[in-house]
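Can't attach files on this board, so I'm pasting raw text. These are the components:
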Amino acid sequence: MPTATAIKRNAAAPADSGPVRTNPFQPLRQRALGGNAAREQKDLTVSTNIIEAQGLKRTFKARGAKGKTIEAVRGIDLSVREGEIVGFLGPNGAGKTTTLKMLCTLLSPTDGSATVVGADLRRNPVEVRRRIGYVSQAGSTSPEAKVGEEIVSHARLYGIDKQVAIQRGKELLQALDLAEIWDRTCGSLSGGQRRRLDIVMGLIHQPRLVFLDEPSTGLDPQSRANLWNHIRKLRDELGTTVFLTTHYMDEADSLSDRILIIDHGTIVAEGTPAELKKRVSGDTITLTLRTEADAANSAGIAARLNGADEPVTEANVVRFHVPDGATALPVLLGALTKAGIDAIGVDVNRPTLDDVFLTLTGRSLRD
Amino acid sequence: MSFVRDTWIIFARSMMLSLRQPLWVVIGLLQPILYLTLFGPLLQTIAATSGFAGDAWQVFVPGLLVQLGIFGGLFVGFGIIAEWRSGVIDRQLVSPAARTAIIAGRTLRDVVVIVVQAIVLVSAAFFMGLRVPVGALVIGLVLVALLGAAFSFISNAIGIATKSEDALAPMVNTLALPILLLSGILLPMTLAPAWLQAVANFNPFKHIVEALRAVFLGHFGEPIVWIGLLLAVLLVVIGAWVGSRVLAAQTK
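---
Top answer:
C-alpha cells for the assembled complex are below.
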C-alpha cells in the first residue's frame, strides 16, 4: 500500500499539464533535503521507502535447451528510502540490469512483489511508469532527431502540455550544462552531452525516483567526473531519489549513500561504502619480486606477520591483508632482507569495494 | 482516448524524422517509376496478345500499386531496429504511452509515406497514358494504404521481435518473392499454365491485384472487388494484432 505521503505527493505530481511553473526546481527543492540533511532525515521517517521489493525473481528460458531455465535474479529483497542515492554494484551478468528493468516495468517479474513510488509493480505498472524516470544505457534519442523535438515528444507521452514541456526542457538542459543544444541534432552531441540529455529526458515529467542504468559506461574520465557531479545534483538540488547500476567500483563508491552488491542474481552485501570496506580485514599489501621462487618464500614470511591472512601468490606477485599496513611494512621488509630476498615493488592499499567484492565472492569485480 | 493521442504523438515524431531524411522517400519512389518507364513500354507490345483485358497501363499500374503497398511496408522493420538500438523504443515503453500506439504511430507514418509515393506513381502513369475513372484511383490508394499498413505492422513486429537486421532481411525476402511471383503483379496470372494458376489462387495478393485491375477497367460492381478489399482489411487486422502482441511481449 502506498504511504500517506506518497499519495499526497502524487496528487500534486507534475505529470498533468497544470499551471506553468516559472521555476520547476522550486517546489522540488522543498522536498529536497540536501546532502547531509537528507541522510539525517532518513532516520526520522523510516516508513517512506520509495522502493520496497520482496522476493523479486526472474527466470529466462535457456535458448536451445528445452525446458531449461536460467535464473537471472533469484529472489531479491530491497528497499530504497526517499532521497537516497543507491548504487547497485556487481559484475556484468550479475542480474543488475534485469532487476532494474523489473523495477522499471520493462520486464515482468517471474515471482515476488514490489511497490515503486507507492504503486504496485505487478498490478499497476502504468502508474509506476508515470512516477519513475528511467535512463537506459542504450540512450533515448534518435541521432537524426533534434534535441528539442525529442524532449517535447517524450513529455507529451506523459500528458505534459507542449509549452510546459519546452520551458521545463530548457530549464533542465540549463541545469545539466546543455543550455545551447535545443536545436541541434542528437547525433551531433558528444558522448557525455548525449548521456546528460538522456537524463533530461528521464526527468522531464519530474519523477521522484530515477533509475540510471550504467550511467558512465563508455565515457572518458572527464565526462564521467562531470556526470557524477550532475547525478549528485539530482539528489541535492532536485530531491530526486537515484537508483543506479554500475560495474565500476569507483562510481559506486563516489556516488552512493548506500551500496547493494549483487552477484549471481542475489544481493550478497549491503551498506554504506565505509561500512562495506570495514568488512575487509585491513589493508592490502602487494609485493612484487624478481622470481617465483622468491615469491613463494616471501609468502611464507608474510603469513607469519602479526594478523596477516593467507597470502595469495600469482607468478611473482604476493598479495595479503594485514590489520594495519603502515606498521606491518617495516617488519615485513626487515624479514625479507634477513632472508636475502630483494623485493622490486611494494604497495600498501586501503580497502576498495573491489576487495569487498573479492572477500564476499572470491572473485574480482574486474574479472 | 489515450491510444489515439499517443499514436498521434508517436506518428508526429516519426513523420518529422522521415521528412528530415527525404532520401529514403525518394529511393522508395524511384523504384515504381523505374518499373513504369523501363518495364511498361515492353508491355505495350504484349498487351496486344491474348490474356490481357484492357490496355497495358490498366493492367500494369494496379500491379505496381499493390507492389508499392507490400514492399513499401515490408522493409520498414529495419528502421524500428535502429530505433530500438538507440534506446528510443525502451524509452517509449517505460512511459505511460499505450503499448499498441508505439507501433501504430510508426505504421501510420509508413502509410502516409506510401500513399504519397502512390500518388506520384499514378500521376506519372497518367502522363504515360493511363486513363481511369477517379473512383478507381481512390480505391487504388485505399488498397495501397491498407496493404502498406498490414505489411508495416508485420515488418515492425518482426523487427522488434528479432532486434536483428540479419534475422529480418531473410524473413522479408522469403515473404516477398513468392508473394510477388504468385500475385500476377508484373504479368496477369491468366497467362500462366493451369497448375501455376491453381497455386496462385491461394495467394491473397493475387485476388487483391485482380480486384484493383477490375476497378481500373471500371467494373466496380464485380464480387472480386469486394473480396480484394475484404482481404486487405483482414490483413491489416492480422498485422495490427501481431504488432500489438509483439509490443506487449516486450515487457513480459
